[in-house]
Structure formats: C-alpha cells, structure tokens
C-alpha cells in the first residue's frame, strides 16, 4: 500500500514516529561518536603521559639492568586498575620487569618500536626509554578499554530507553493529534458517506474549530445547504412536471373523448343528412313526375274543350280557358325551376379548368328563342378561365343573360355587356344591360326564392332564377351582387375565386 | 288482330291514356295500337306469355311507348328485362314520362333505351311530339328484321 493511500490516522502516526526516531537516532549517534572520539583522545593523552612518566622513572634501572627497581616502579601502576599490562625491556629486547607479576612473561608482547594503537584487547603503547637521547630500552603498556565499552553500552541502553519512551510519547501525541486533526476529517468523511447513502441533506457536520478544518466544514455545510435547496427545488420541479404530465394526460384524455364524441356526432349528423338528402331526392323525384302530370292534364283538357266546342264557346269562356292554360304554363315553369334549384343545391361540383368565353357563347346561342326578333348589341370582353363546374356556371350565364334580354325588352336597341372588373376576392365577371333596372332599395330581395321586383304582367318570371344563380356562385365560394338604377339598367357581378389563367384574347 | 300491332302503349294513368290516344287518333295511328296498363302486362305481351301466349315473339311492335311510373313492375324494370334478353333486345323502346330527372335519364340510357321523351305540359306541343314520334318510328325508321329477335 502506498503512503498516499494510507488512512490519515496512520499517516500522522507514521510521520510522528519517523520524525522522533530519526531525531533521536541522529542525536544519540552523534553524541556517542563524539563521546567515543573524545574518550579515545583523552585516554591516549593520559596513557602516553603516564607511559612517559613511567619510562622516565624506569630509565635508570634499565640503564643499569636493575630489574628489581624496574619491577617496583611498575608495581606502583597497580593504583591505576585500567593498566592491565606493563613491561620494561632492555635495549636487546629482553624483558626486565613486568606488571602484574601474576601474568606469565609469555603473555607479554615482544619489544617493539614506538607506537600507540587501539585494539579490541585495549590501548597498546610502546615507548623508548631514553636518557638524553641515548636509548636504553623500551616500555610497553596496555590499557583496558572494558569500562569504556561498558559505558558505551550503557549509552546504547539509555538511548534505546529514550527511543521507546519517545515512541510511546509520539503515539500518545499522534492519538491526541488525531482527535484534533484526523477525527474532524473522519467525521466529515463519515457525514459525507452517510449523506451519499441516505440522501439526507439536512444532516450537518460538526465544526471542530476555526482552523482550516473549520473552514472546510463550513464550506461543506454550505454546500449541503445549497444541495438541499436545489434538491428541494428539483423535487418541486419534478412534482410540477408530474402534475403537468398528469394534466396533459387528462386533457389528452378529454380531447380523445371529445373527438370520439365529435366523430359520433358527425356520424349521426351525416346519417341524418344522408337520410334528409335521400328524402329530398325522393320528394323531388316524386314532384317531377307527379306534379307535372296533372298540369299536363289540365292543359290538355282545356285545349280539347276549345278544339271540340270552339264555335259554342263565348269570348269570355275562351279568355278563361286561356288564363287557365297560362297558369298551367307558369306552374310548369315554376316546378322546373324549383327542381333545378333543388338539384343545384345538392349538386356535387364537377370542377375543371373552364374558359368562360366559350361557355358564354353557348349560353347566348341557347337564348335564340328569346332573342329572336330582338335588336340586341352584345359587347363581350375576354374573360378569365376558372376552375369551376362548367354546367353550373353556364346556368349562371343563362340566367343572367336571360334576365338581361327580358328586362331590355322595352328598349329599341338592347345593349348587353359582359366583362370583368377587379374585386378583392378575384376578378368579378359582370353582365350589364340598359334595361328597366330596379330601385336599389329592393336589392336585398333580389336573390331570395320567389322574390320578384316586377309584376308578372310586366315581366314574366318565377323568382327562382337568381336564387339558383346565387346558390351556384356560393357553391364555388364566390359572391354575387348587383348595381342598378331604375330605368337606366342593371349590372350583376359575380366572383368565382382566383382565376386559373389570364384572360384569353378573342 | 287482323293488322299487326305497330305501337305498344304502356300507360297506367287513364287521363294520360286518353290524351295519348286522342293525339294518336288525330294522326291516324290509333288503329295499330295495343294498350297495356302496367309493367307486368307489358312484359307478358312482349315475351308472349300468359294471355298473350299465342303471340309470336319475333313479330313485336315497331315501337314501345313506355311510361316510367307504373304499378307492379315499373318502367325501368320493364326496360331492364327487355334489354337484358336477346329475344327482345332489338325492340325499339321510347320512354315517355313527365320527368326529366337526371337519374331517370341516366338509368334509361344505361339500360339501352332508344329514345327518351319528356311529355310537354302544353297539349299542343304534346300532340306535335306524338305526331313526330309516330311518323319517325312507323314511317322513317327501318324496324329490326325477325332475325334480330332470337
């Protein structure tokens, strides 16, 4: 395990221990080395001094080969117990005296040139014994180092004791430091872990003091507060979102229900309409067959009455019969017009591209029975093409032109103009005549069924034609309106939406 | 039965019958007419069955004037039956009715009618129509030969 992965507790302990051991070791080591060095220096000096003094004292006895005196002098060395061996040699190297006497002569080294050397067995010193430069012999001394070594050993034991003591102190110190430094950190860690597990953002770490850890705890607690606030906001948002989702689901449900209901109603209404349409169709079918038959019969029998009793009938009777037949004709026309109006109302538009000018020409041609013997000036401008139902639009022209022809009846020269003017909802086609016109205050009655602005004895008509025209124009999404002045003429405009092509040149 | 039947008139309404016959008489066409009063009778006549069993199917009238609104079997049904059978398909049939409803026109022509006439309300016009009709189908038109009725 790497140091950085160790728990803080161990890191702290290790650091303290390491520091104290190193410091202690260095101190003890340097102290010991210094002590050893100074001891050896002192010992060497002391030993050499004593050796020189002894050498001087024994010089005379060596000069004269006086073994006894030399032995006495050496014997005095007893006072210094650390001198474990001493010997005096003559200049031939013969052992003259030795100390202690109890030690065998063989245990003493041979004479040697001057030297001072430390050996495990002790400090060995060889000195020449000389008087005024004349060498008579040599001196040997061995100093015991055991006491010194004992002292050093004691030093070692003491150092060890200090080390152990300081280790214990360091341990205690680290424990104390833990409570001051690592415990708050561990607590913080524990708090963070608890929060991450329980997601309880209301928990707060205890502040140990005003140091960096205190700041860290404050920052941590502040962060917790923020997280808590955001968590709350998030929760609120989520709740709102869920509510919105539920609401939208509810409204989607409502829309679905509404749609289903609507569809149901549309189906119902469609069925009703189909039924109504069917009924209307049956009705008009019946009308077209059954309403016309009696009219034919009335007319036929009236005519047969005249044919077979022609001579016997009075003028008044003939007039009555004529009125009956006229009424029948009007009724017949009314039935036809109404059937047409109803057909137009139910018609499905067969839209196609239609050029209006050819359609207009056909409509004028169809009017030839009405225009026969009349003096009419047609002024026809190029008209646009529209996407429309050709058959129905031709009916529009047929009706408007027929009206124009009819109401210009009193004019010696009828002028009927067909052209186009711009209107907001597309070009407006107009049919203008110089006929009897009408008072604009009745214009609201123009397009109503059975509404007429002229008496039947002035101008014939059923009052259905313009209603049919309006219905056709409305079917195409267009408008129809009129502009007129009594005795000056009338203009009818209609639109059919936007044109499909530019006006053709004629 | 001395003279061959040239016109079969299928008409249920007594007034219409009288007026049509009146118009035909006026143009000397009435003596070659046979009248039936409903669709079933018309089919019996033309397919030579029932009380018309002794008739020969390959000598039909030159023209059939057929009303559309008829009791029992209506005009369009009669038309369908006649035009759907190879023995009667060639018989010229003129629908003569009060209506000119789009539906009737389309149905009649799709079933193969030879002519369609709306009876005019004006009796004079009606008489003219009858005159033209008789003249055309009896005098101008070349009727189908017996081989066409097989």
Biggest interface and which pair forms it?
A-B, 23 and 21 residues
| H/E element order of chain B | EHEHEHEHEH
- The 3D shape of chain B can be described as globular
The rounded distance between the terminal residues' Cα atoms of chain A is 106 Å
Going by helix content, strand content and strand pairing, the class of chain B is alpha/beta
Mean pLDDT level of chain B: 89
N- and C-termini, Cα separation of chain B: 23 Å
- Global structural class of chain A: alpha+beta
* Most strands sheet of chain A: 5 strands, antiparallel
In the sheet with the most strands of chain A, the strands line up as: 2-1-5-4-3
Strand composition percent of chain B: 5-15%
Describe this structure in words.
The complex is a heterodimer of chains A (506) and B (150). Chain A is α+β, with helices and mostly antiparallel strands and 506 residues long. Chain A has helices at residues 8-63, 67-75, 146-198, 212-290, 292-309, 315-346, 356-366, 368-371, 390-407, 465-475; strands at 83-90, 95-99, 115-119, 122-131, 134-143, 351-355, 376-380, 385-389, 414-421, 428-433, 480-485, 489-495. In chain A, the strands form three sheets. A five-stranded antiparallel beta sheet of chain A has the order 2-1-5-4-3. In chain A, a hairpin with a 2-residue loop joins strand 4 and strand 5 (134-143). The radius of gyration of chain A is 73 Å and the shape is rod-shaped. Chain B is an alpha/beta fold. Chain B has five helices and five strands; from the N terminus they run βαβαβαβαβα. Chain B is globular, with a radius of gyration of 14 Å. Chains A and B meet through helix 4, helix 5 and helix 6 of A and helix 1 and helix 5 of B.
């Amino acid at each position: 395990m790497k140091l950085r992965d160790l728990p803080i507790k161990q890191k702290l302990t290790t650091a303290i221990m390491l520091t104290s051991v190193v410091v202690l070791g260095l101190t003890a080591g340097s102290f010991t080395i210094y002590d050893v060095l100074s001891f050896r220096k002192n010992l060497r000096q002391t030993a050499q001094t004593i050796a020189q003094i002894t050498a001087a004292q024994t010089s005379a006895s060596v000069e004269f080969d006086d073994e006894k005196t030399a032995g006495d002098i050496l014997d005095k060395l007893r006072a210094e117990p650390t001198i474990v061996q001493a010997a005096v040699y003559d200049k031939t190297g013969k052992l003259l005296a030795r100390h202690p006497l109890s030690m065998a002569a063989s245990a003493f080294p041979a004479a040697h040139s001057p030297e001072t050397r430390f050996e495990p067995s002790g400090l060995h010193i060889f000195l020449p014994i000389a008087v005024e430069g004349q060498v008579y012999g040599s001196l040997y001394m061995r100093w015991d180092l055991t006491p010194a070594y004992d002292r050093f050993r004691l030093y070692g034991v003491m150092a060890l004791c200090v080390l152990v003591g300081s280790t214990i102190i360091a341990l205690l110190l680290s424990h104390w430091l833990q409570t001051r430094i690592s415990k708050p950190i561990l607590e913080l860690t524990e708090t963070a872990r608890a929060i991450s597990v329980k997601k309880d953002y209301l928990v707060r770490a205890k502040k140990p003091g005003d140091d960096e850890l205190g700041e860290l705890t404050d920052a941590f607690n502040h962060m917790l507060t923020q997280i808590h606030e955001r968590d709350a906001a998030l929760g609120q948002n989520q709740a709102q979102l869920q509510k919105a989702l539920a609401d939208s689901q509810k409204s989607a449900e409502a829309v679905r229900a509404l749609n289903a209901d609507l569809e149901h109603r549309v189906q119902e209404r469609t069925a009703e309409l189909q039924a109504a349409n069917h009924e209307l169709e049956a009705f008009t079918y019946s009308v077209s067959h059954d309403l016309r038959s009696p009219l034919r019969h009335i007319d036929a029998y009236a005519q047969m009455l005249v044919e077979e009793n022609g001579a016997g009938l009075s003028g008044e009777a003939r007039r009555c019969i004529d009125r009956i037949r006229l009424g029948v004709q009007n009724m017949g026309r009314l039935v036809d017009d109404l059937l047409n109006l109803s057909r137009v109302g139910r018609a499905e538009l067969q839209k196609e591209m239609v050029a209006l000018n050819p359609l207009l020409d056909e409509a004028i041609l169809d009017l030839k029975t009405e225009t026969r013997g009349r003096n009419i000036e047609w002024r026809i401008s190029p008209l646009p093409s529209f996407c429309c139902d050709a058959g129905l639009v031709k009916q529009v022209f047929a009706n408007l032109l027929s009206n124009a022809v009819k109401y210009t009846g009193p004019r010696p020269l009828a002028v009927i103009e067909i052209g186009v003017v711009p209107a907001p909802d597309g070009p407006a086609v107009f049919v203008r005549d110089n006929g009897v016109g009408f008072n604009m205050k009745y214009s609201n009655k123009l397009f109503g069924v059975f509404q007429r602005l002229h008496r039947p004895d002035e101008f014939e008509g059923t009052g259905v034609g313009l209603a049919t025209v309006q219905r056709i124009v409305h079917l195409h999404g267009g408008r129809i309106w009129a502009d007129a002045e009594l005795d000056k003429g009338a203009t009818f405009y209609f639109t059919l939406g936007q044109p499909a092509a530019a006006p053709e040149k004629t | 039965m001395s003279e061959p039947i040239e016109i079969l008139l299928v008409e249920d309404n007594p007034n219409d019958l009288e007026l049509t016959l009146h118009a035909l008489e006026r143009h000397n066409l009435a003596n070659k007419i046979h009248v039936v009063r409903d669709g079933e009778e018309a089919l019996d006549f033309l397919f030579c069955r029932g009380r018309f069993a002794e008739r020969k199917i390959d000598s039909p009238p030159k023209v059939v004037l057929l009303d559309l609104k008829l009791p029992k079997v209506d005009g369009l049904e009669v038309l369908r039956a006649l035009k759907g059978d190879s023995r009667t398909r060639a018989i010229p049939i003129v629908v003569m009715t009060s209506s000119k409803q789009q539906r009737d026109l389309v149905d009649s022509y799709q079933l193969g009618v030879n002519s369609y006439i709306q009876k005019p309300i004006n009796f004079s016009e009606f008489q003219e129509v009858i005159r033209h009709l008789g003249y055309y189908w009896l005098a101008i038109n070349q009727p189908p030969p017996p081989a066409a009725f097989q």
